[in-house]
Amino acid sequence: MSRRSKLTVLIAGIALAAAACSAAVGADADTPDESATDIVTSTTVLVESGALPAGPSALDNKFDDSFPSPLIEPRDVVSGGPPPDGIPPIDDPQFISVSDADVWLNDVEPVLVVDIDGDVRAYPIQIMMWHEIVNDTVGGIPLAVTYCPLCNSAVSFERTVRGVETTFGTSGNLYNANLVMYDRATESLWNQLDGRAVIGVLTGDVLTQVPSTTMSWSTLRDSRPNAKVLDRDRTGASRNYGTNPYTGLDDPNGQPFLFNGDIDVRAKAMQRIVAIETDGAASAWTLDAVSSDNESAVTEAEFNGESLVILWQAGEASALDTSDIAAGRDVGTVGVFSAIVDDQVLTFQADGDSFIDDQTSSTWNILGEAQSGPLAGTALEPVTFVRTFWFSWAAFRPDTDLIEAS
Fold first, then answer.
1. Cα 371 to Cα 210: distance, rounded to the nearest angstrom
2. Pairing of strands 168-175, 164-165
3. Do residues 277 and 68 make contact, with C-beta atoms less than 8 angstroms apart?
4. Euclidean distance between CA atoms 217 and 315, whole angstroms
């Protein structure tokens, strides 16, 4: 298929997705659940009482001159098609058991996983791409679990702002092709990729990111049998879950859609990357740099003076390749961890679908857990990272050090 044909298919798919999601605003959408309504009401009261700044809605007018100076040019925030919450967030998430979800999830399908103090939640990407935000509470912490299909970025944040618990919605807008969210307390606009309030009364605030990662369904199922899985039958909307409306988007040689920024030519725009940032520094590794033609791969890394290990394991499908998510090309599962255990830096070798450390010969899985050997029961400390497309990350962090395959 030619690039022009692929682009035509992609535009048609996104148009269909936008139309389907916009329908949720009408008769197809459920009324928000009582608990979500309570949250929105309580935050409104707190705004009025002064706990949060009052002011006009950036959702209604992003050019209002009473706002603090915006962090981005408001004209660069463009419509993605649907109206606010036309892509309907899930405000009352319902969960089922791993065994029940196994009926409709394929082994290689990607799921977004959050684990807070043993409260493990799995959010299948086949659901997330139609809703983009799930307002949930995990391990007692109110979270906004988010996914932007155009950037392939899955990021989770605490949804408490200045001590006030709120919920987040989809604005219907994009910045650098990235989902622009809005908080329902003040209707300020936020970038999904970096969690910053960029326009509105909360401009400058930054959401606290919590570790989350995507992995294959089989990895989650076999390692976390007691996890709770987001139920696709009780999302509040009817969608063709399991299909990808963005067919052809995940083309390493393609171009981003609805992107109006400059492309950093150090890598291909649609190259998948693994990115880390902290204390003003940022590094990214291309998928080619951390993967292999074998079942697994190990990449040793240094970041901000810390010894890290990046583990990669085959068996996770791209959700944005073919119309059938389960048939997408294999992009693998990634884990990023501190390589230090008991003040000792461990080095690893790939061994089939497992990993063996050179120091104790213990065997580890993709989740950084020692399964056998002297360190059995030990878990590597996870490092927060983002998997996304290079064009998107570079637009937000142009100062990133990029590591490519040698």
1. 25
2. unpaired
3. no
4. 9
**CA–CA distances in Å: residue 214 to residues 160, 315, 332:** 23, 12, 10
d(CA 287, CA 271): 7
272-403 CATH = 2.102.10
C-alpha 306/C-alpha 304 separation (Å) is 6
Which structure tokens are listed for 143?
């979270």
Structure tokens belonging to residue 128:
């997330």
Distance between CA atoms of 146 and 128, rounded to whole angstroms? 8
Can you spell out the DSSP letters for 28-49? Answer: TSPPPPHHHHHHHHHHHHHHHH
C-alpha pair distances (Å), 311 with each of 355, 358, 373, 406: 8, 15, 19, 17
Q: How many CB atoms lie within 10 A of CB 343?
A: 5
Considering only CA atoms, give the Rg of the chain: 21
Domain range list for the chain = 3-230, 272-403
Residue 232 and residue 124 in contact, taking contact as beta carbons nearer than 8 Å? yes
Which tokens is 218 given?
């089989």
* Structure letter (DSSP) for residue 24: G
Helices (H) and strands (E) in the chain, counts: 7, 29
Q: How far apart are CA 212 and CA 112, in angstroms?
A: 7
Q: Each residue's pLDDT tens digit in the chain (406 positions)?
A: 433 334 434 444 444 454 444 443 333 333 333 333 344 444 444 554 458 999 999 999 999 999 999 999 999 999 999 999 999 999 999 999 999 999 999 999 999 999 999 999 999 999 999 999 999 999 999 999 999 999 999 999 999 999 999 999 999 999 999 999 999 999 999 999 999 999 999 999 999 999 999 999 999 999 999 999 999 999 999 999 999 999 999 999 999 989 988 999 999 999 999 999 988 899 999 999 999 999 999 999 999 999 999 999 999 999 999 999 999 999 999 999 999 999 999 999 999 999 999 999 999 999 999 999 999 999 999 999 999 999 999 999 999 999 998 7
CA 349 to chain centre: 28
Pairing of β 281-286 and β 401-403: parallel
Global pTM reads: 0.88
Amino acid at 286: T
Backbone torsions φ then ψ of 18, nearest 5 degrees: -65, -40
Strand partners, 335: 311
Amino acid at 399: D
- With CA atoms as reference, report the closest residue to 52 among 209, 207, 205: 205
Identify the sign of the CA torsion 168, 172, 173, 174.
positive
